[in-house]
Amino acid sequence: MDLSPKMMELGKKSSVIREIFEYSKKRKAEIGAENVFDFSIGNPSVAAPEKINATMQKLLAEMDPVLLHGYTAAVGDPAVRQKIADNLNAEFDIGARPELIYMTCGAAASLTISLAAVTNPGDEVIVFSPFFPEYRVFVEHAGAKLVIVPCKKEDFQLDFEALEKSINPHTKAVIINSPNNPTGVIIPAGDLERLAKILSKKQEEYGHALYLIADEPYRKLVWTEEAVPYATKFYDNTLVCYSFSKAVSLPGERIGYILVSPTMKNAVDVYAAVCGAGRALGFVCAPSLLQFTVAECLEETSDFTIYRKNRDLLLKELTRIGYEVVSPDGAFYLFLKALEPDANAFYEQGKKHELLLVPSDSFGCPGYVRIAYCVTTEQIERAIPAFEKLYEDYQK
Ligand code: PLP
Asked: 114: Cβ below 6 Å to ligand 1?
């Protein structure tokens, strides 16, 4: 056996979301793009803020090209990390320090690095279902075991009783994702406090650290008045995995960072492990043009008006038709209860009306579909009759 069977399997079996996305392209070529209602992929549908492009152009025109396109420090440019720390401190007063920030190629890299840094083979990592399917790939690649704790079905918030039953001396980390993909649910401050209490108690009991990994690509996509509470304010042993992919619509540019909480007792060691994991995984010197660009645009977000409009429209129409949906407070996803227990069968039925919804099995929570509403409002308007027909199919 000269190739890694695990990697062969991963490479051959693309994610369900990618498969649907490919089907969508094929179907659009057959019947016209306007007749296919593709709600499969979380690719931002609004452009990056104008300032992003303007900053890139300015850097290209004015900065020494050797510096601009050269390697930065492996952990990221120091001035860039200082600006990120300053911005976070101004907004959340968390005592962020540049020497505890590590620039990455987006949240995916932030997560793989963080997991490699804080776990050893055989450790357990808790995720709350439904969860971003790649968590399984990332956790298992780190040699750890994925432990799934279902959220409460009535509101998809954390289930603390279930969590307490799942934590054991092998537990090393817990991943949270707020606002959540696929439900759009935000973890309120009170629940973060409760989570922090449980983790603190358990790490004392076991005599080793339990790390909280806060996966935050959707932090800025919030449809309520309050900002998402900052996890490091509640729990010291926190690593924040941030990404600019969704907040400023740069998913293809691959840029984000890891913040090691400055309140962590062994922050310097954990940061060293983050640097080591970045090195071992080959995630050093994140793209320099992007580092310099985002550092000038930290106050910016894309224009989210359309996401909010889409969310309101979908929520209103789907509820009117009779569907059961979780009301999303953030991100650009809506989690809809399938009209039969088998979400894959429901997905196939939706396909008959050209509706492409992602069955929830890979999110670790069967019986639902995810609707990514980062699409045009016209697509949603055109899709409503298809949702009506799909509902009618199940009333017969
Ligand atoms: N985490 C979650 C919950 C996501 O939804 C995504 C992307 O959709 C990622 C991580 C990866 O994001 P990035 O593009 O920053 O790697």
From this structure: no
pLDDT tens-place string over residues 21-47: 899 999 999 999 999 999 999 999 999
Residues in the chain, how many?
396
Alpha helices (H) in 236-376, listed in sequence order:
267-281, 288-295, 305-321, 343-351
Closest CA to 117 of 277, 301, 258: 277
Atom nearest to 180 CA in ligand 1: 3
Ligand 1 near 42 CB (within 6 A): yes
CA 237 to CA 232: how far, in whole Å?
Answer: 8
Q: Is 177 in the pocket of ligand 1 (CB under 6 A)?
A: yes
d(CA 379, ligand 1 centre) in Å:
24
Asked whether 306 and 45 are in contact (CB, 8 A), the reply is yes
From the number of C-beta atoms within 10 Å of its C-beta (0-12, 13-18, 19+), residue 194 rates as middle
- Is residue 115 a contact partner of residue 142, using CB atoms and an 8 Å limit? yes
How many whole angstroms from 174 Cα to the centroid of ligand 1? Answer: 17
108 lines ligand 1 (CB under 6 A): yes
Name the DSSP letter for residue 98: G
The residue with tokens 């949240």 is 107
Would the CB of 253 count as within 6 Å of ligand 1?
no
Say if ligand 1 is within 6 A of residue 245 CB. yes
Residue nearest to atom 2 of ligand 1 (CA): 132
Domain architecture of the chain: domains with CATH: 5-49+302-393 (3.90.1150.10), 51-295 (3.40.640.10)
Which is nearest to 158 in space by CA: 171, 170, 175, 173? 175
Instruction: Report residue 200: phi and psi, to 5°.
Output: -60, -45
**H or E element that contains 370:** strand 368-372
Ligand 1 in reach of 217 Cβ (< 6 A): yes
Give nearest CA residue, ligand 1 atom 12.
Answer: 107
Measured CA to CA, the distance from residue 351 to residue 357 in angstroms comes to 8
* Report field, pTM of the whole predicted structure over 0.85: yes
User: Tokens representing 323?
Assistant: 């569907």
C-alpha torsion sign, points 220, 93, 126, 258: positive
pLDDT in tens, 178-228: 999 999 999 999 999 999 999 999 999 999 999 999 999 999 999 999 889
Instruction: Name the token pair of 351.
Output: 């396909």
Indicate the burial class of 64 (C-beta count within 10 angstroms; 0-12, 13-18, 19 or more): exposed
